[in-house]
Specification:
Strand content: 35-45%
Largest sheet: 9 strands, mixed
Helix content: under 10%
Oligomer: single chain
Shape: elongated
Low-confidence stretches: 1-23
Structural class: mainly beta
Radius of gyration: 25 Å
Order of helices and strands: HEEEEEEEEEEEEEEEE
Number of strands: 16
Length: 233
């Protein structure tokens, strides 16, 4: 009798637990964002970062009250298996991957959503990115129309020079620059293309700038560390 009672209790518990679990499959997949435009002010999507040799990922969560989190998978190179890289909470929407990232290697990512019942969604679309060497030794003249200079290891094709006003964080000048690299430093005068917000900078104001290398291959590039200066005289 005791055995029968125990079996009935377990069966009742199973029915109680399974009652609230929807019959349909797991949650919808999240959306991993593709690389932003090279001239974008707000950069959302798989991309390089200025702070390190690392790859930033951004995603959009699917709708659903039962969403519990996400799982990010990574594959190194164009073939092989995707391995679980990291799990995230439901409120997370960005991650900077610096785990063993090497310049010159292409990394592929996909993501799944997980609900409170432990069910995992189908995989998202795959995104990929490859870092190239950063521009370095950034320096400029401290004038109202500065001349920007930097070095790179190899001929990269194109750069994007991004200049911001530090007083309010506003964009001052984004310029797509064709490389003229011949083994020496690159030299670009301020507003050479006439697209800056003003013909000259404001004396005494602080600015910051960086150089993004646009890779020759698709979805490849790098972002230099930020450099700051005060406009003179």
């Amino acid at each position: 009798m005791k055995t029968r009672t125990a079996i009935l209790a377990i069966a009742s518990l199973f029915l109680l637990c399974s009652k609230d679990i929807p019959e349909e499959h797991g949650p919808p997949a999240p959306i991993l964002l593709k690389p932003p435009d090279d001239l974008a002010v707000v950069e959302k999507g798989i991309d390089a970062v200025p702070e390190a040799d690392a790859i930033q990922l951004d995603w959009l969560a699917p709708d659903g009250e039962d969403l519990a989190g996400f799982r990010l998978y990574r594959r190194t190179g164009r073939s092989g298996a995707f391995l679980l890289l990291k799990s995230f909470k439901a409120q997370d929407s960005t991650h900077v991957d610096a785990a063993g990232i090497e310049v010159g290697t292409r990394y592929f990512y996909l993501m799944t959503a997980v609900d409170h019942f432990g069910r995992e969604s189908a995989p998202s679309d795959t995104v990929d990115y490859q870092l190239v060497p950063k521009a370095f030794n950034l320096h400029c003249t401290a004038s109202l129309t500065p001349v920007f200079r930097w070095h790179v290891q190899d001929y990269p094709g194109q750069y994007v020079l991004k200049l911001f006003d530090l007083s309010d964080g506003s964009k001052v000048w984004f310029s797509l620059v064709q490389s003229s690299y011949t083994g020496q430093e690159e030299v670009v005068p301020y507003n050479w293309d006439g697209t800056a917000a003003a013909s000259a900078l404001v004396s005494g104001r602080q600015y910051r700038w960086r150089v993004d290398v646009v890779g020759v291959e698709r979805n490849s590039g790098s972002e230099s560390a930020w450099s700051r200066f005060t406009a003179g005289p």
